[in-house]
Every structure is written in structure tokens, then in C-alpha cells.
Amino acid sequence: MIYIKLFLTFLKIGFVGFGGGMAILPLIYQGVSKFVPLTQADFADLFGISQATPGPIAINAATFVGFKAAGVGGSLCATLGVVIPSFLLVTLASSLLKKHRENPLVEGAFVGIRPITVGMIAAGVIYIASGALFSADISGMTGVSEILGAMDPLALVLALISGVLVYTKKLGAIQLIIGMGVLGAIIFS
Amino acid sequence: MSENTSKKENIYLQLFIEFFTLGLFTFGGGYAMIGLLEERMTRRGWLDSDEILDCIAVTQTLPGVIAVNMSLYVGYRLKGIKGALVSVFGMVLPSFVIIILIAMFMENFGDNRYIQGALKGIRIATLGLILSAAVKLAGKTFDKVKGSKADSAFSILLFCVSFLLISFMGVDAVWVILGGMILGIFYSLIKARRAEG
Predict the structure, then answer these.
(1) Chain B residues with CB-CB distance to A105 below 8 A
(2) What are the residue boundaries of the structural domains of chain A, listed by start?
(3) What is the CB neighbour count within 10 angstroms for residue A96?
(4) Span A52-56, mean pLDDT?
């Protein structure tokens, strides 16, 4: 039965999918192509739509594939399947952390984890910047001047202004996103 | 008693609204959500900077959809299992409704040039948001260890190594976080032994 198949496939993806959205999309492709008759064009749509709509990429993809396979019920089964492992693992990890918060080993672990996480967020800045400031793919470029040449200076200025406005609390995050969406539709279209 | 009950309902509603908003205004999930999460959680006074970092580290290390993990983590942290359920429902709902509408009515909507332009604007806003969050969280993290030179050198070293490994060597963030965990445990053990004499 298609509902159970969808649920189990996405349940498995929820348990083994590390690294979030872009890492999970190929798992979805492999997992469902065995029993859902999706065309190449459907999968191209899957990638495009999952990234162009709000919300987590993998949830968008699960909803889309589930709908293509079996309508709204299919969307529900796929989304539930991918969320349930997260629910079990996050609540389990959180309750363990809560219980052992005072343990010196746990405290020590977080002393190491926090600066690492700040480094990861700094890496996230580079990752987001590569999508926001460049129209061409920069992963193959090596020269600094070549990379700077491919950068959109207007986008850089707007990003810095956005950052300063949020940092100084002149603008809330949601207002900024709406404002930049409207501005983008006007000046980048 | 009745005031107590209304307060309880209030926090669940707040969790739902907060994560519904995050789901509705994040394009791309994961990294793209960090800036928005930091701003919203700080504004609500729900998490301090250490707790935001812990949330990001734990949710990144576990399997599953990172944004979903984040909503569950914060929901559970504030209001246990029920809080987690309400938060994840809020996070998933906008995606669910919007994707079904698109799959039904307007599959090629992404080709629209105004939507493309809006998405480019939103990517730039997302960059500004994560930049602001990175500066704030780095400032708070490195400030706290100002007391001891060794602590501060340890943090800054880990920060630099983590940034270089993930950004330029393509190492998966999960491994870097696990590495930081082990180094943090060793560092604390050595420090405790030194303090004992």
C-alpha cells in the first residue's frame, strides 16, 4: 500500500539523513524512485520548488513527493515519516542533556563544542554568501581577483546594510526579509 | 489557578506562532535559519547565546531535517514533549500548505522573474541575518572566556580550525562538532587536574 510505503521510506530517511536539506534530497530521490512513477522533469521540479518556497528543503520535498504519489494523504505520510525520527532523537537527546547538565564531562564537552559551532556558523556565512553575492558558480575559481570580479557589489552593499540594521535592532528579521523580497522583485527582476 | 492555566496556553501558542513564522520566512532551511532563529529566540528571551549554540550543535549532529530538529529542541527545552509537538507542527505547517497548493495549481511558479528577483533579495537578507548572528554569538562566546588566557586561546583556536575545516576543506560539520566535544572534555579534565595541584 502506497501510504505505508511512503511512510516507511521517509521514516528511514529521517533516521539516516545527516546534514540537512541538500544532503537529504538525493536520499529522497533514491528512496522513492523504486515505487513512485516520477519523471525526470518531476525531480527537476522537486529540486527547484523545494528551494524556491519557504520552509525546510527536506519537508518541502517530502510534501511534494508524497502529493505526487498519493495526494494530500501521501504528503501527510511522507512528512510524518521524516519528522518522527527527529522527534524521538531530539527529545531523547534533550532529556539526557537535561539530566546530565551538571556533569563535568558534559560541561567540558560544551566548552569545546561552542567555539566549534561559532566556526560552523562563520562557515555558514561563506556558504550563504556564495549563493547570495555571486551569479556564477565560484567553486571552481581559484584566483582572488577572479572571485571578486564575479561578485555583485550591489548585493554585497545590501547584505552589509541588512546585517547592520538587524545587529543594531533597527529592523526585525521578518521585516527585513519581507522588505528585501519586495526590493528584490523590483530591482533584480 | 486560572491565571496559571492561561499562561500555559499562552506559551504553547507563542511556540506555535514563533515556529510557524520561522517556517514561513526561512528559504533554504538549516544554515539559512540560523540568523532568524538567533534573532527571534533572543527577542523572546527564550535562549541565551550559549543555549543557541548548544541548540545549533545538537540539532546539526543528530540525523534528520535540521530546522525540524531546531523546533523540537527549543519546544522541548521550554515545555517538554508538548512544547516539542506544538513547535514542530508550527514549523512544518507552512511548507505543507504551500507545497500542496503549488503542486495543485502552479508548478512552474519558480520560473516567474519577479519570484526569482524576490528570492535573490531574500538570499541577501539571509546573508545579513547570519552575519549579524555570527558576530553576536562570536562576541558573547569569546567575551565569556576573557578571564583566563588559556581558555580564550583554546576557544579561538577551535573557532579558527572549525571554520577552516568546514569552509575550505569540505569536512562535514558533524565530525568537527564531535571533535570539539572530545577536545573540550580533555581540556576540562586537564584543567581540573591542574587546579587540584
Answers:
(1) 185, 188
(2) 2-100, 104-187
(3) 11
(4) 90
